[in-house]
Specification:
The protein has helices spanning 38-50, 69-86, 107-112, 128-136, 164-174, 201-206, 218-223, 239-253, 257-260, 273-277, 283-294, 317-339, 351-359, 371-375, 382-394, 399-411, 416-430, 437-446, 468-474, 478-484, and strands at residues 9-13, 23-28, 54-60, 92-97, 115-122, 142-147, 492-493, 499-500. It is α/β, with parallel strands linked by helices and 501 residues long. The structure holds flavin-adenine dinucleotide.
Length: 501
């Protein structure tokens, strides 16, 4: 059993262990997985040391922004797997799906009141910071929040980084000493703990745990007060689907990632971002798969921490390019979200970017679209419309086109603030990986965050611009446009102004 490094554990509420408590409670919120999870490791260690059962509580509430069939089903897929895996384990599992707004209020407090010790996930993803605040107010019980976000502890840097290059340099210095810290790959197989047995009866009577059939019941999903115009997709949540995608990616696509990742016709990117977002797969597990595929050992690391994008790991160019996305770009954004509480606000754009964008606010825009026209993929641009249709129907946009998608929204709105609102709304409503620190990294990157100044252009000023014409010239797109372009794939708006496929 691994133990999280001390820097990954924050005590949110101090109290001596409540020895009369019935169990150790792991309140699973962001790291929704049973493997490669430091919070679970910590909860198991505490339960063992106290000789108490372990209960995992995983909830799905209603009141979150952009709640839809798509996001709900992704989380329910993970819950279904947990329910199956834990049914034959001494570890207890309490899955809860809220049926009416506010129904779940008081549930965690009721469980915590019966617990010896509470463990939860530390993460900046979506509403987790609000849950951490709630956890810190639990009374009479110790609460530890444990970070499994990335390869570096999320609080190691001590400050936000404003450019990927500077963060990469820092990472090169810091990461080698941390590579040996890894959460347990499979902490529950063969686990010896006092069995949890029945859930506390008064709690289960008031808040009925979800039944296995609920996770796949379309009528349950349909009955919930969430946005049904954003439907489910063929994509499946949960650790098994994530692991199978990871295996396919490493075998088939990783070797050609560097050449092919920008071409929408290729399947070179991993497609792992939704599972990372929901906590269904760990970056540690992904990193291990790359290390194994490359037969890599740390002896191949360069001793020059110079912030280079390639050449530092001593791996193939493709593996290095992939790790740069998974580690540098993902972790610079998550760290930024930890240290800059207003990271979703326009005012946190770098001063140079805001200034140059505002200097060009009165430049003539050849095309202007409303939020609804964007959502319905009703622009003049075939490539943009295709990317938007893919987002609405599949919950995913190819990465290169995602950059173009954002740059064009910036170009085709009257003010960068409006562009920001449109990007956030559409991305977070439809993208399976939306509502993540990465969402804001990408959207704010469109407007200059983490980037540098470029030669000045109309509308964009010194912020990097992109054009559909050069995208068409440089990238292989024919099959992509066949699938997502053209009138056959047209979207319509429903009565609420949402795009429906
Ligand atoms: C306008 C815009 C919006 C974006 N919105 C999101 C979003 O909502 N959620 C999201 O996860 N990413 C977002 N990104 C970043 C990036 O586009 C996606 O992470 C990537 O396309 C996911 O596909 P993949 O898993 O196949 O990536 P791969 O190329 O296989 O990369 C592996 C992993 O690295 C991380 N990663 C890759 N590119 C980036 C990046 N530019 N910034 C931060 N992390 C990265 C992701 O976790 C990704 O899963 C956005 C980018 C832009 C320009």
């Amino acid at each position: 059993m691994s133990h999280p490094p001390t820097m990954r554990v924050r005590t949110l509420a101090e109290a001596p262990p409540r020895l009369g408590g019935a169990f150790v409670l792991y309140w699973m919120t962001a790291t929704r997985r049973l493997e490669w999870n430091y919070a679970l490791d910590h909860a198991v260690t505490v339960a063992r040391s106290l000789g108490k059962p372990l209960l995992i509580y995983e909830g799905l509430e209603l009141g979150y922004r952009w709640a839809s069939d798509r996001h709900h089903q992704a989380i329910m897929d993970g819950m279904r797997e947990h329910s199956t895996k834990l049914s034959a384990s001494p570890v207890g599992y309490f899955p809860f799906i809220e049926r009416s707004a506010g129904e779940g209020r008081g549930l965690v407090r009721a469980l915590a009141a019966r617990a010896c010790h509470v463990v939860t996930d530390d993460s900046p993803v979506f509403f987790t910071p609000k849950l951490l605040e709630a956890a810190s107010r639990l009374e009479g019980v110790r609460v530890d929040a444990v970070d499994s976000v990335g390869l570096l502890p999320i609080r190691a840097a001590g400050r936000p980084y404003s450019a990927a290059y500077h963060f990469r340099r820092y990472l090169h210095k810091e990461l080698p000493a941390r590579l040996g810290d890894v959460p347990s790959a499979d902490p529950l197989t063969g686990i010896v703990l006092p069995p949890m047995g029945e859930l506390p009866t008064e709690v289960a009577a008031r808040w009925a745990p979800a039944e296995p059939a609920d996770f796949e019941d379309p009528s349950l999903l349909a009955s919930l007060p969430i946005d049904h115009s954003v439907g489910t997709t063929p994509w499946r949540g949960g650790a098994s689907a994530a692991r199978s995608r990871l295996q396919d990616f490493v075998e088939a696509s990783l070797p050609r990632y560097v050449e092919d990742r920008n071409h929408p016709d290729s399947m070179a990117p991993s497609g792992l971002s939704p599972w990372l977002h929901y906590g269904h797969i760990s970056p540690h597990e992904i990193f291990r798969a790359v290390v194994d595929a490359e037969e890599w050992t740390p002896i191949r690391l360069s001793d020059k921490p110079d912030g280079r994008r390639s050449g530092w790991w001593g791996m193939s160019a493709s593996a290095e390019a992939f790790l740069d996305q998974l580690i540098t770009w993902r972790e610079v954004g998550h760290g930024y979200a930890v240290y800059e509480p207003d990271f979703t606000q326009y005012e946190t754009l770098p001063a140079w970017a805001r200034q140059t964008l505002e200097d060009h606010v009165h430049d003539r825009r050849e095309h202007l679209y409303s939020a609804d026209e964007f959502a319905a993929a009703e622009t003049h641009d075939e490539i943009w419309n295709a990317a938007q249709r893919q987002l609405v129907e599949d919950g995913y946009i190819h990465n290169y086109l995602r950059m173009l998608w954002g740059k064009k929204i910036l170009e085709w709105t009257e003010h960068p603030r409006e562009a920001l609102d449109v990007m956030v709304e559409i991305n977070n409503r439809y993208a399976l990986d939306g509502r993540d620190p990465n969402s804001y990294s990408g959207i704010f990157w469109v407007m200059g965050r983490f980037d540098r100044g470029w030669p000045e252009r109309p509308i964009f000023g010194k912020v990097r611009s992109m054009t559909s014409a050069s995208t068409r010239r440089k990238l292989s797109l024919d099959r992509y446009l066949e699938r997502w372009g053209g009138p056959s794939a047209q979207l319509t708006l429903d009565g609420a102004g949402h795009a429906t496929a």
